[in-house]
Design brief:
transit peptide; mitochondrion; mainly alpha; 22 helices; 57% helix; 2 domains; single chain; three-stranded mixed beta sheet; EF_Hand_1_Ca_BS
Length: 403
C-alpha cells in the first residue's frame, strides 16, 4: 500500500472531480503513478462507488512487464476486451479521460476523432502522435491546478501524470497564449504542426520517460512500432461502447434476453440529478400494465441516440418554435432524421411513459433533454452537470477546462 487513507482524503482537496474519481477507483501504483485496471475502469463507469475501499497495490517492473506481454494486439480486440483483461492491465489517468470521451461519442464522429490524432495526415496514427494528446492534457491541467500546498500538488501531479519536475520545465510555455481555446478546430484544418511543433518535437523525450500501458501496447505493439489504422480505431471505440452497455444490461437481465421496462427506467435515471425518481417509476408502472421487456438491441440503439443528443435537440427545437406538440411519431421521426437511429415503437412508448408525467402522451422535451444530459455525465452524480460531448474536440476541451 502506497498511501494511508488520511493521505488519500488530504490530496483529494487538491483534485478536480474527475481526478478524485480516478483516484477512488484506481487500484495500482507504479513508480509513484496511479493506474486503473480494466476492471477498475468498468467499475468507475457503471458504479456510483467502488465496491471495496481501494488500497493501491505497488507493481514491480517484472509484474508490469508480464501484464503488458499478455496484452492482445488491436486486431484481436472485441466487445469483451476489458472483461477478459480484468485485473491484467494498466490504464493511466489521461487514458481514462480519453476512454470517457469515447463512451459519449456518436459513431458518425469516429473519423473526426481519428483525424485529431493523425497530425501528419497519412491515414495512420503512430505512438508518437497518440502521446502528443497525452502531453496536451498534462499541459492544460497545469493551468487549472488548485492553488495551495505546492508539495501536495506535486504529489498529485506525480500520481496522475507520472512526472516529478516543476510544471514550468515540462514543456515550453512561450507563446502559449497564441494557442486558441478551440485548438481542435485548428487541428482539423491540418495546421496543428505549426501550433504544436514544440510538443511534437519533444514527443520522443517524454515517450521515453513514460511507462508503457495496456492501451499503448494494444494499439502500437509491444515494441511501440506498429501504427493504428482507422478501421482498427473505429472497431476499438465501437467495442468499448458496446462492452459498457452490455455490462449494464446484463447486471439487470439475470441471464434473460430482456430487461424490464422498470429496470430500463432505473438505468436511465441512475446517474441523473433527478431527486424523486419514484414518481417517474410509479408513473410508468401505471402506464405499462403488461411487461414486454427491452431487448439489448433496443437498449443499445437508445444509447446510440443519446450520443447524438445535440443534433436531436436542434430537431426538437424546430417543433417547439412551431408550437407543435411532440407525440411519439414526431419523437421517433426526429430521432431518425437527426441521428440516423431507428427506435422501436415499444422503446419510444416506454420512454414516453417514463417522462410523460402529466400523461397527455406528449413529451416535455426540455425536461427530457435536461435529464438525459445528466445521464451522459456517467459517474459524476452530484456534481454540477456539464454539457454532453458533441464532438471529440468538445469532449477534450471539456476535460481540459473543467474544474
Amino acid at each position: 500500500v502506497t498511501d494511508s487513507r488520511s493521505d488519500l482524503e488530504d490530496l483529494h482537496l487538491y483534485a478536480t472531480p474527475r481526478e478524485q474519481r480516478f483516484r477512488r477507483f484506481a487500484s495500482l501504483e507504479f513508480e509513484g503513478q496511479l493506474y486503473m485496471t480494466p476492471h477498475d475502469f468498468i467499475q468507475a463507469v457503471t458504479s456510483d462507488e467502488p465496491k471495496h475501499a481501494k488500497k493501491w497495490r505497488s507493481l514491480s517492473k517484472q509484474e508490469l512487464n508480464q501484464i503488458l506481454m499478455e496484452t492482445p494486439p488491436v486486431w484481436k480486440g472485441s466487445s469483451k476486451l476489458f472483461r477478459n483483461l480484468n485485473e491484467k492491465g494498466v490504464i493511466s489517468y489521461t487514458e481514462y479521460l480519453f476512454l470517457l470521451c469515447i463512451l459519449t461519442k456518436p459513431h458518425a464522429g469516429f473519423r473526426i476523432a481519428f483525424n485529431m490524432f493523425d497530425t501528419d495526415g497519412n491515414e495512420m496514427v503512430d505512438k508518437k502522435e497518440f502521446l502528443v494528446l497525452q502531453e496536451i492534457f498534462r499541459k492544460k491541467n497545469e493551468k487549472r491546478e488548485k492553488r495551495g500546498d505546492e508539495e501536495k500538488r506535486a504529489m498529485l501531479r506525480l500520481q496522475l501524470y507520472g512526472y516529478h519536475t516543476p510544471t514550468n520545465s515540462v514543456l515550453k510555455t512561450e507563446g502559449e497564449d497564441l494557442v486558441p481555446r478551440s485548438y481542435w478546430d485548428t487541428l482539423r484544418r491540418s495546421t496543428s504542426q505549426a501550433l504544436f511543433s514544440d510538443l511534437a518535437e519533444r514527443a520522443d523525450d517524454y515517450a521515453s520517460s513514460l511507462s508503457d500501458t495496456t492501451l499503448l501496447v494494444h494499439f502500437f505493439g509491444k515494441k511501440g512500432k506498429a501504427e493504428l489504422n482507422f478501421e482498427d480505431f473505429y472497431r476499438f471505440m465501437d467495442n468499448l461502447q458496446t462492452e459498457v452497455l452490455e455490462i449494464e444490461f446484463l447486471s439487470y437481465s439475470n441471464g434473460m434476453n430482456t430487461i424490464s421496462e422498470e429496470d430500463f427506467a432505473h438505468i436511465l435515471l441512475r446517474y441523473t440529478n433527478v431527486e424523486n425518481t419514484s414518481s417517474y417509476l410509479e408513473n410508468m408502472r401505471g402506464s405499462i400494465p403488461e411487461e414486454k421487456g427491452i431487448t439489448f438491441e433496443e437498449f443499445r440503439s437508445f444509447f446510440q441516440f443519446l450520443n447524438n443528443l445535440e443534433d436531436f435537440t436542434i430537431a426538437m427545437q424546430m417543433y417547439n418554435f412551431a408550437s407543435r406538440s411532440i407525440g411519439q411519431d414526431e419523437f421517433k421521426r426526429a430521432v431518425y432524421v437527426a441521428t440516423g437511429v431507428k427506435l422501436s415503437p415499444h422503446l419510444v412508448n416506454t420512454v414516453f411513459k417514463i417522462f410523460d408525467v402529466d400523461r397527455d402522451d406528449q413529451l416535455s422535451y426540455k425536461e427530457f433533454i435536461g435529464i438525459m444530459k445528466d445521464r451522459l455525465n456517467r459517474g459524476f452524480r452530484g456534481y454540477k452537470p456539464i454539457q454532453r460531448y458533441t464532438t471529440f474536440k468538445s469532449c477534450v476541451r471539456k476535460e481540459l477546462y473543467s474544474r
